[in-house]
């Protein structure tokens, strides 16, 4: 949760879909496309052309009520102060965030901003590595020198492609989510990039999406709350339970989307990632409602 303390949180009057989602720089970042007949000029043989990824401009929508963040923040603070024992408060915080503060699962997915673009790049890269092999996927990005290196080095080398440098909070969320994903590789038993299985590739994307949603929630309703428990073990318990809660929803979302997950064009990759985020938020609201009733 590297971003949980970096931002003052969204204001009650913030638009449901922030204006930075229409940033042309974020909207035109390249994604590895599905195999095409010809590579870009000067690229290595067999390389995939990096086509621009366009995102429709959607005008910001105004908040349905001026205090939509208040109840989710209050419940999240209650959960944090309990040291992770008040699961009902966590359920109410997450459910209220999706249904009220974010304006529903679809709008919550749209709030992911740069994490949508980064997720599409990561998903496309992993799909290409599965289809043509890790070395060829790296060669398509002129990163063939990373072949054979430890998996952490490979993914660190991909960082600027997956998450281009930028200074906004939204871009920081995407970068932190990717770095947290790299840190979790060993814990998941993912140690050899050249031997990545389809299930491991799915796990990598699942971790990124879960970290990105977790960071988005923390920046919107959990800022400073995570620091409230004075016991370090309690802080770690709060962080772990929030991530596990989000990861369950992302895992369910990816399980539902798995039959359609294949080699995609850049726009299809973004649509797939949006669908995963939306389904994950939908599952989060359902899980939150169930937890709050216990």
Short description:
By secondary structure, the chain is mainly alpha-helical. It has eleven helices and two strands.
Jot down its keywords.
QatB, 11 helices, two-stranded antiparallel sheet, single chain, 294 residues, mainly alpha, disordered N terminus
Describe the structure.
The chain has 11 helices and 2 strands. The chain has helices at residues 24-27, 70-81, 87-101, 105-110, 114-132, 134-139, 151-162, 169-184, 198-222, 232-257, 266-292; strands spanning 30-31, 51-52. It is globular, with a radius of gyration of 19 Å. The two termini are 27 Å apart. The model is unreliable at 1-9 and 11-64 (pLDDT under 50).
Proportion in helices: 55-70%
Average pLDDT rating: 80
Q: Beta-sheet strand percentage?
A: under 5%
Globular, elongated, flat, extended or rod-shaped: what is the shape?
Answer: globular
Compute the gyration radius: what is it? 19 Å
In DSSP terms (H or I, runs of 4 or more residues), the helix count works out at 11
Strand order of the largest sheet: 1-2
Calculate the terminal CA-CA distance, rounded to whole Å: 27 Å
**What letter string, H or E per element, gives the SSE order?**
HEEHHHHHHHHHH
Q: Please state the structural category.
A: mainly alpha
Domain count: the total is 1
Largest sheet: 2 strands, antiparallel
Low-confidence stretches: 1-9, 11-64
Question: How many β-strand stretches?
Answer: 2
